[in-house]
Specification:
Blueprint (H helix, E strand, L loop, with lengths): L1 E6 L2 E3 L5 E9 L3 E10 L6 E7 L4 E3 L7 E6 L4 E6 L8 E10 L5 E5 L3 E5 L2
Parallel strand pairs: 2-11
Antiparallel strand pairs: 1-3, 3-8, 4-5, 4-9, 5-6, 7-8, 9-10, 9-11
């Protein structure tokens, strides 16, 4: 049981950069995994990047070398730095968090999504 607040979406030109952030709050104690997903019109939601407790990261092939995911456990925040944006990156980006409550229960939370538009 937690709440995720995403920010950073908006309009960016092709080749530009954008920084998305997701802050988790509520009934969480320790975050074990954080990730960013995206869904473009007419397409399935897909994993963009994820980061686990030990700072292990993984990226979709389409964003490798352009996007960087990072986390700040003290602030319960995950960041997605998006560089060299392409029109095909335009989508609604969703934050996902897996966490443990103080009692040890695992929770799964999704953000409401933030729109990223890539256009000149």
């Amino acid at each position: 049981q937690g709440q995720l607040v995403e920010s950073g979406g908006g309009l960016v030109q092709p080749g530009g950069s954008r920084r998305l952030s997701c802050a988790a709050s509520g009934s969480i104690f320790r975050i074990t995994y954080m990730g960013w997903y995206r869904q473009a019109p007419g397409k399935q939601r897909e994993l963009v990047a994820g980061i686990a407790s030990g700072d292990y990261t993984n990226y979709a092939d389409s964003v490798k070398g352009r996007f960087t995911i990072s986390r700040d456990n003290a602030k319960n925040t995950v960041i997605l730095q998006m560089n060299s944006l392409k029109p095909e990156d335009a989508a609604v980006y969703y934050c996902y968090v897996e966490s443990r409550t103080s009692s040890g229960r695992t929770t799964h939370d999704w953000g409401q999504g933030t729109q990223v538009t890539v256009s000149s």
